[in-house]
Amino acid sequence: MIDRSGGLVGPGPDASAIDGGDPAGAARPAGAGWPLAPNQVGVHLADALAERPGMHTVVAAYRLTGTFDGELLAERFRALVRRHPALSSRLVDDGPALGMARSDTAPEWRDETLPPSAADDDGADRRLAECLRPIDTRHGPLMRGALLRREDGDADLVLTASHLVVDDQAMETAVAEVLTGDTTRSPGDYPGWATAAAGAALRGAGRAAARRAELAALPLGTEPAWGCGDAAAGDADGGQLPFTVPDDVWRKLAGTARTLGISRYSALTAAVGLVLARNGGTDASLVGSFVTRRPAAQRHTIGYFSNTVPVPVRLAEDGTVAGFLRTCHRQCLAAYRDADLPLFDVLPAGHQSGAGPLTAAVAPLWTPPPLRLPGLTARPLPHPFAGAAKFPLLVYVDMAAEGAARGLLQFRHRWFSAEQAALFTRQLVAVLREFAERPDARLVSVSVLDEADRQRVLDAGLGAPLAPEELSVPALFTRRAGLSPDRIAVNDGRTALRYAEVDERSDTVARALAEAGVRAGDRVGVRMERSCDLIVALLGVLKTGAAYVPLDPSYPEARLALVIGDADVRVVVGDADSRPADLPEHIDWLPVHTRPRDPARPLPAVDPDLPCYAIHTSGSTGRPKGVLVTHRNVTSLLNATREDFGLGPDDVWSLFHSFAFDFSAWEIWVCLLTGGRLVVVPRAVSRNPEEFHQLLEDEEVTVLSQTPTAFGLLLATDRLARGGLSVRLVVFGGEPLDTRTLAPWFERYPGARVENMYGITETTVHSTTHTVTREDTRTGSRVVGRPLPGWEIYVLDAHGRPVAPGVAGELHVGGAGVALGYLDRPELTAERFTTDRHPRVPGGRLYRSGDQGRLLPGGVLEHLGRLDDQVKVRGFRIELGEVRDALLRDPSVTSAAVVVHGAGTAEARLDAYVVLADGGSTDGLLRRAAARLPEYMVPQTVTALTALPVTANGKLDKARLPAPEPDADAPAGPAGSPDAAGDVLDRVVGVWRDVLDVPVAPDDNFFDLGGTSLLALRLKTALRGAGLPELALKEVIRHATPAAMTALLRDRAGAPGEAAG
């Protein structure tokens, strides 16, 4: 039996039934025969929230073989509908309560002969078409029938009913009555049961609030965080996938369940919950469980007696599998005891719409037996899936199977691809196997990947092999200078030096440093402005075997002093003849033009495993961390990219970044070691987009390296510039890139290659690369590609376990780029640089990046921002990158930043900053963002800037963002209503107060204030009664604060012709 809203529905664990009870208190709507039971309210709300109302149907399809009378079947069907009030009813939802009333419309019956072409798919397309037709619940009746005759004399009997009034057992009863005509069994009293259930629900409001508070404490998201589906798909569009739990697993699981005193159904629920939690990166999940509440006295009653209850699954990783299973079993039993409560009323506030926290639900897979009558056999058909899924994931397993158990997974395309759905079934079977075979194992040891999937994930993290470079940076430079001594190596607007000149001058610096006592392994400070001499000094330091320590003169004196002390610098090379006054007395100052006493002093051969530079990055304690990067790290980056990017002597590179920022190591050394020309960009020019654009044009720069924020400023300038650029390769790094901002670049420079590279100082600038395409600019992409040759990148959870494709985790980087560690910080080095459990080279290490990412099913990596970029506002966990992404999808926005103010306090709020496109405005921007985000994720303010402030390294400078503009997105009221905004809000708050009977503030959440599904219906009617524009039920639920509802109502008042929808 197939449920159009969720699939095959079968009898779940039996919860306590309502066999009668006092109907007092149950609202009986005007014109209605009886009120909706709480479980029916849940179906109605799910249907109201769906994109295609009327699609929550249940279908029974049987192949009739033998002798049958079509007219007799039609009469029996009409008698069936008349005999059972649930089928002959219609929905009444135009008052303060919901109910059912008798429909005056005759039930639909079709008798048709299928064309010969139907034999090609055994009539499946026609049965599917029957399934896809919605049922008009407001007019009724709520069941229709069809007899589809075949050429071979057989026929398909197809009964379709609204899920409001039938479950699987009801459909079996209906089929039996139509085929046998047997009406001797009592039809029961469904209206009486529903009335009693509605009354009980009113008395259970306190239990619902308590259950909701319990579930609100779980770390739940509002949608699957690990899906890789099609965002353009409909809410319920989906597919289905059969799978099998192997015989040995299913039998062993039965034995384990008996030993532990639990059911296999509880074990299945626990397995689904474990996979959900691990995939969601949390220690808890919420699993829906189908429960039947049909009383014995209503055995043959046609009605809807089932419900979906949320079962919390909490992971105690240090505990045993057995303890986890027993706990889950107790949670299942507790949930079943509350099966009379409407699902919407127990879900935490903010989860009543969208995917909600119920990413997955479980149900028994049930197929009714064939009916054998004199001269006729009716065989249930494997009904074709009609493409709608009630939950993002819906898991069915044949609980009655003795051997291998059949399973079926239905999934929503919006959240999950077919490949990811298949992986989920393998994860589920892998966990069930662990449960069955290792009940005494610690839960933390249970893998959600089988060995084959685990190996596939690890293999995807490996870059192509890369032969180690045996020469150091200065040795490679000297070789390059010998190949092209007269080519220009570097110019800075005043000076240009050939390769031979740079080589000779750096030898001079190296000899002067050696005479000053500098030896291999030392660290030498370099304090110079950007110039050709800077490059000479850096190379001179390297020729001694020492590492250079950048001391950017633009940095504060206190910062420079801290770096000097942290790196134990004893000699500083500078571009001034006299030592700076702030330089500590014990530091030797060596002007870059110092001549050595012995100009022929031999220089050492530099070991490629020696440190090349020590660049300091910001630290969480406020103390910068010095990162030691070796020559081999740098030359590996060179060899990993040279061939792919086509880097060579014809390229002109810009040195845009401070040499204290590791992006500069890429710009300087990869340029010079491939024979290119390096154009030094003065600091003042780097901070002026117009002057920088002119420099790029004048110098005919071909390779441009930028942070996305800095490039945004350049791109705005380029759109106004008359002259074009010669750039053939743009390399992005340093911060996340939103590819949609690059559309103007692709329009103007269609032949330029754009690479989005992810990397960190501790792994030598770049670790991955992804070629950005025009398609990326249309769809938006956070993909950073695949590991560079010689690099490894793994997505691991908090316990160091590989996670499944699509699942977010921490990026761990290994291979050729991993630095030596932090300067004199052994404990921090041990914490962040860990042993690689599966190294390509023995003794390999991994760097824990602190960045969040995921491996997509296609094998490429997606960067999701910093792990610490997650904030909590009003109890909800929010990824700032997700909010920024929603703003950037607005055509009026070209750049965006989102920050949280008051973090960790009750006044915490999100504030947005945007750069607008030409003609763009902030009016309505946040309301449009609200169409893409849950209410709690919508920023409270939006401030327009001419440009986002950037740091010296080209990254977003949050400290320089101005105070947010209050009420920046508040639109004016309708014409002729000067104070419309305040008036509407006051009226909405008043209606809320009357319905909820509690004090109400503009930002209060309806469900936090004790709102229920039934109260939402009353609120909908009360708003209309107060003279406010009509709102659909789904709009009431999705705009769950007075402020959000007021904004919607103002929009509705401004567009009187718009339907409520």
Features:
Chloramphenicol Acetyltransferase; 8-stranded mixed β-sheet; 1061 residues; AMP-bd_C; GMP Synthetase, Chain A, domain 3; 30 helices; alpha+beta; 10-stranded mixed β-sheet
Structure in words:
The chain is α+β, with helices and mostly antiparallel strands. Among the domains are: 197 residues, Chloramphenicol Acetyltransferase, CATH 3.30.559.10; 226 residues, Chloramphenicol Acetyltransferase (2-Layer Sandwich); 97 residues, ANL, C-terminal domain (GMP Synthetase, Chain A, domain 3); 75 residues, Non-ribosomal Peptide Synthetase Peptidyl Carrier Protein, Chain A (Orthogonal Bundle). Helices cover 32% and strands 21% of the residues. It is built from 30 helices and 43 strands. Strands 28, 29, 30, 31, 32, 33, 34, 36, 37 and 38 form a 10-stranded mixed sheet that branches. Strands 1, 2, 4, 7, 8, 9, 14 and 15 form an 8-stranded mixed sheet that branches. Strands 10-17-16-13-11-12 form a 6-stranded mixed sheet, with helices on both faces. A hairpin with a 3-residue loop joins β1 and β2. It is elongated and about 115 Å long. The two termini are 32 Å apart. One of its GO terms (biological process) is amino acid activation for nonribosomal peptide biosynthetic process. InterPro entries: AA_adenyl_dom, ACP-like_sf, AMP-bd_C, AMP-bd_C_sf, AMP-dep_synth/lig_dom, ANL_N_sf, CAT-like_dom_sf, Condensation_dom. One of its GO terms (molecular function) is phosphopantetheine binding.
